[in-house]
Amino acid sequence: MPARILSGNAIRDQIYTELKQEIAALAAAGIRPGLAAVLVGENPASQIYVRSKIAACEQLGLGSWMETPPATVTTDEMLARVALLNARDDVDGILVQLPLPPQVDSKRVLEAVDPAKDVDGFHPVNLGRLVSGRAGLVACTPAGCMEILRRSGIALEGANAVVVGRSDIVGKPMALLLMHANATVTICHSKTRDLPGVVRGADIVVAAIGRAAMVEPGWVRPGATVIDVGINRITDAVEARRIFANFPTKLAQFTEKGSVLVGDVHPGVAEVAGAMTPVPGGVGPLTIAMLMSNTVRAARLRRAAVAGKP
Ligand code: NDP
Question: Which of 146, 189, 215 to mutate for ligand 1's pocket (most ligand atoms within 8 Å of CB)?
Fold first, then answer.
């Protein structure tokens, strides 16, 4: 039986409905959460990501600002911008779109963001809170994966979860979130021995690798849940034909547009898995939804912290 498709779009819509109520309640108290995005240079993918984040703010009625320093920006100039945004009371969330140009010290810039406004959850203070299981601002993509699992009724307690990928922004926080949800977690990476064998032991697989269609049907235990974080654009016709040999609709898309998206999981896994996220329309929409949710949360937490001061 083909896998149940876990639609990220439907779950995003649920989250937006809930957020709208929260935003209306904050508006009644005179608070309008706001997100400031800093987009450096002309990277087309980054421009698309930031535009969709700003569009989501507008859709939900959040405040939004976009700063666009040139690709020649220095670390000091970036630090000065972040300091100004940290000081602004109307800015609840600060997003520095990555990657930054090579002359900029990305780590210093990200660490300069006020942890209370760090809606990407990248600041060491928020990472530390995540490690110790305390509430804070959690990285959006792994937080979105958890929303998909929870809202789809996937049992986590006692489950064997295998996370493929150990990046700071996806793999590591994902593994921590699954562990805090009482799954038994294995983290895999490029040096893991017998990766297919390890993945085969999983009730839940999270693929965050950055390699097109790498997780194959033979790697997945029948009935397992598969969360595909990867987004890879295929522009090579031979590769498209290899991956999508049995998927005529995808091949037609490739022929029409000259490119097609695929995750880190082979689409044929849908014949084996019990449940699986699609690409596109799976984890992607949740990443933006969680950014919106973090912005609202940051607004609430920051106001509560101010109100709590003597
Ligand atoms: P990184 O490149 O930072 O990390 C990739 C990880 O995969 C590394 O830990 C690496 O291991 C591991 N890896 C690479 N090759 C192999 C291999 N052959 N076998 C086993 N492990 C391997 O990527 P990100 O975590 O930033 O992103 C992962 C994917 O998720 C990408 O496709 C990206 O586009 C996508 N993404 C999607 C988002 C969304 O909103 N849907 C948001 C963010 C990312 P090692 O550490 O040993 O090098």
Answer: 189
